[in-house]
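Recap quiz, item 2
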Amino acid sequence: MSGVNRKEKKYAKLMRNQPSNFTFSSADPGAGRSGMGPSEPQTDNPNYSCFTSHQGVNGDHGQQQQVGSSHQPSSYGDRQRGSHRGGFRGQRGSSRGSYRSYSQEIPKIITATNFAQARAAEINAMLKAVTHKSGSQFLQSLPPAMRRRAMSHNLKRLPRRLREIAKKEVEKIAQLKKEQSKSKSRKARRRHGNLLMEFNRRQRKNIWLETHIWHAKRFHMVKKWGYCLGTKPTTKSYRACYRAMSKQCLLQDLSYYCCLELNGTEDNLLKTLTCLSSREAGTTFASVACLSGKCQGSLVLYKADQYPEKPLGPVTFLWRPKTLSENRQLWIWAHPALKMDLLTELQLVCQCLDVPVPEPAPSECRTVTRTPVKQAKVIGSKRKLHDKAGEQVVPEKKIIGNGTRDPLETVIWTSLTTGIVIEDLTMEILRYRLIGPLSHCVMFEAIQAAGILKNSEGREETGLHSWWSEYCESPENVTLHNRQEGVLLLLPGIASPAEISAGTVLGLTVGDPRLNMPKNRTTAMPDPTQPKDLEKIRELCLNGVGAECAQSQIWDRNIRNIVTETKITEQELNGMRSKLLVPGTRLDLGPQESKIPILLVQQPGKMAGQEHTGWGSGWDILIPKGWGMAFWIPLIYRGARAGGLQEGAKHTQYKGLPHFPDDFPDCPAGMQHSEETEKELIAKYKKYPPAKRPNYIHHGTMTPFRCPWQRLVEDWETQNQDGGIKPTMSDQEQGLRSELQASNREAVGVHEKGAFEEISSEEKPPNLEEKMEEESESMTTLEQNTGCKNIHNPSNRDCSSKSGHVSILRNRKLLKQVSAWCRPTSSRGQQTRQYRGSAPVQMTADTVKSVICSYPRFLVWVRLSLLKKGSPVANATICIPSKEDLQRLASEPNCSGPQEPKHRDPFKQECKALRKSQKKRTLPQDSETAAGDLERKSASSFGKVLIRGLWPTQPLNVMSHCSRLTIGYVSQGDFSLTVGCGEAWGFVSLLGLLRMVLSQPAERRGLALVRSPASLQYRFAKINIEV
Amino acid sequence: MAENQPLAPASEGALDMDQVEYTLRKRLPRKLPKRKNDIYVNMKTDFKAQLARCQKMLDSGCFSEICIHGLGLAINRAINIALQLQGGSFGALQIAANTSTVELVDDLELDEGEPLTRTRNNSAIHIKVFHTLPK
């Protein structure tokens, strides 16, 4: 194997100086000739004679060339050796043979000039190859028997006649190396200015967060979404991070989230933004609590008027509390993978496409010196303040904010019609997330409200922070600041962030957090001895923070810029510290101290479901750019543990929420993500030898690296229409189901409410009659709903079935209903508890049917908790247990679940044949068979790519491929540290889910089977839909 | 008791609670600062395990007394644990119980309009288990 590699390398070396029209080909000996010129005679003998005649002209080189073409993979050294030994003639003979068998199409006429030119180019190339001597040439000129160890090291081991030449060679090489080596020593490269330049260069392609260097020393970094991000700590800390999340405090840098600012009148903004979301899915931009600016809202955005199809992705948004001006500001925070989609959609909706306004006055903080010519000079020479021409070298500035953006690129778009201004605030505002019950204490210790400046203290004294003295001039602002400070002081009295209302926003202006840093890393703990104002704390918990307390100067662009510019550098700060009278005491800057406006946003923990409510709650800190490290280190010094992307994903997972972009298969970003991961996983799979990787065909897994949502939904829809493809092995068909299918068949395509009622009255399954009469009222209301919906947007439904798009159910009302249906009825009457307003809709065949008809191709986000052993992995299948499975589970509760019988691999023979032919092709052989093989290979590669153990074609029938019917797939699964058993999160087809639930007995409702892609074992799991 | 609370949103909420559909989200009960000898009893952990934990704490000799707290449904269990501890000690342990009321906060999420908060009260018990003769 290594020999082959070496040969290839040599070949590549040889080809380095070849002209473009001269190519060797290793596969076909004749093919080398095709490059020689456009014109060569066709028949055998004239061909040869003609060739030799030309050879005569070319002389010696012509001969060499022939050798080169006949004896392909041999390198230059081999050839030389060959000539030493005098084995030249024999090779020539063999080459002649191959020319005879050569029968390619060749033009009949030769143009002499062209031909001569081509030959001349070849000759030149060969001359170049001969004269250019690579490093170890003198060694290779010796026959192997004469070579000695370490000859290149000690020249005296060479025969004397070669020493002179070798000496020259060695000197030449040494000189070459010297020239090539880096012009700078490590010390020089590590000098501050040069280092900064290097850092700035590296930041041009991918944005660095402000904590990048800190992270790069401690985390595994990846380049994702145009950023350099830390995935997980290099230390072994998976569980430690989990403990930090649930008991202490975990810190995460979320500055890579993009902020888009919308500015306009409230009416205009609301009018334009309503079409992006729907009331059905929960919060909207117009939600009362969010609109006042009191709390942060989160929602899933859709393309304009496309709900429930074509979602864009999840965002969080924040309104600025009302100010004196009429315009309102709205921040939309989105994941970078979603930003471009969102931005284009917003521009479209706000009609901002036409008038891109170039960025106003370039703010000084963004002045990144970009003088490539000068930089090149600086790199070459030593560090000098003045270069040779005597002009000042512009010192490189640290990039703050987005270093990849072209300074001329527009970031502001204005609409003439609506007056809305959209601004891209990417990397302008940093966002740190504190997770865990101690995040309170950490924050409280790290942050202290800024001191208010008295009027007596003149503006000249405050110097740089004039905005703060101006702000303090008005008494209203001072009272507001005092109130905000009061709220902050109350916080340590609250033990966990989950105790105050979700999404609370608190604006603050704080002093420089670097000034009161502890000397060592400490752990912030609540202090029980501290006196607390219990009444006020209670008030805070109940009513939250007032809307006016959410006001902060961070919303003001100018003030943000001033704050960023006037930051005292670490160096200056340390200089001042060193001048302190008593070393080690707190540095008191007085009015000179920086004042930073920030926002604190409470992050609700686990909201959905009954278990572990409030888990993983915490605070987000929003800081103006430039202050990243100044806040990061103090937080770390208060005992926060840093986490990366992995911890962030786990956090959302344990909260039971879908993680973006992994768990949004209906969003463009999600689709792209799944494609990318599939490619990666296949590449990884192919790296293993076939015996050391699972054969997924045997395991009955058609798509081990992605989830074929669309096929699944389509399969269920067609099955619903045709009324029954049975799974290959089980006979779980039962009376109720066939009844249902029969009725469904007729119900499909009927949208009118009247028709529904007709069917439901005529085709009542006899066994359900009494039940239906009891629930007739609630049922009809539901039918009315669905009927109306169908009438209202029939076009939507049609397009969904045509385009074959998959949608995820986000209608809260329906989700609640389905969630109630999936619960076993025996458990403590939970169903009734949640719906006090309207009577719960009982699950009957007809209600289910109506849901199915109105939501035919929808997926539902579910959480699966395994009953016994096992922890499923991503892309595991979720299946319907057969009747026998459930019986078996009832009779022996310790059984681990059924097994999938091993599948046959129908592609095994094909794979083997392909492999064989590939092997054959590598061996030297006649050109005819080679051509045949090539044909066969191309035929097979056109149809499908065969990889042993993977299903080669598009999956056809994913639903009924295995012995149990598949209803969904797991998008992420793991052993859950919160629950202490295997848990999985994924989507199931709504149709499949309802079918499953209908067929199950009431006390065992919501039991499903989960099977990992590389396993035959099904495991029992409980389906939870948490709303 | 809930009616006596001087909370405007809560009383308003009670009015239209029946008409509007809402989602009830219970917030966590207020956490109190915890000493090392405080034991909060819950209904999820196995009874035996909780009993063993208390027993171990008493036997370790580090604490002359432990405090067992139970809220709501867990009151029964807290009492049970305390009595079992006392019964198993052959008179070496004594118990002293205190009851209290804990205020709990619920969030009512409406589909439209401002979310409401509501307070309700729940009983709690705090049982001190201590050695009669300090070792």
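The radius of gyration of chain B is 19 Å.
The CA atoms of residues 83 and 95 of chain B lie 8 Å apart.
End of item.
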